Every structure is written in structure tokens, then in C-alpha cells.
Sequence to fold (85 residues):
Amino acid sequence: MQDRTYVQERITATKAQITAYEDAILAFGTNGAIQSYTMDTGQSRQTVTRADLSTMNRVLDSLYNRLATLEARLYGGSVTVRPYW
Fold:
């Protein structure tokens, strides 16, 4: 098993990314006037546009799968991950 501290750090980083993607997606959905949004994950800043929504939703699904896998490693148990394609 990987070092518990490392896995916990990855969980924290993944949660920050999930929050950033969700905030960006919600910003586009609640205000039709917004055409671009700058995401800050705490590790990087990235500007996305409304045209990126499809990709952002796929990335968000992937991040949730990563989070489930990491939490299963840390806390035990199994996880069933479905591909997003």
C-alpha cells in the first residue's frame, strides 16, 4: 500500500480540482453572459471558455473516479469505476 500521507495529499488535491471544475461549470450555467472563467485549483490557474464545457464535464467525471479510487486505497474497500466514454 502506498504511504497514507501521500494518498491523503492526493485526495486533498483532487478535491480542490473537483471544486474548481464544479465552480467553473456552475458559473457558466448560472450566467449566460459569462464566456470565460479562470479556475484556480491551488496548484495552477487555467482559463476556460463556455466551449470547453463538454471537456470540463468529462474531466470532472474522471476526477470523481480518481477520488473514489484514492479513498478506497486509503480507507479500504473496493471501487467500481466506469469509463466516461
Summary: The two ends are 29 Å apart (CA to CA). The helical segments are 4-30, 53-75.
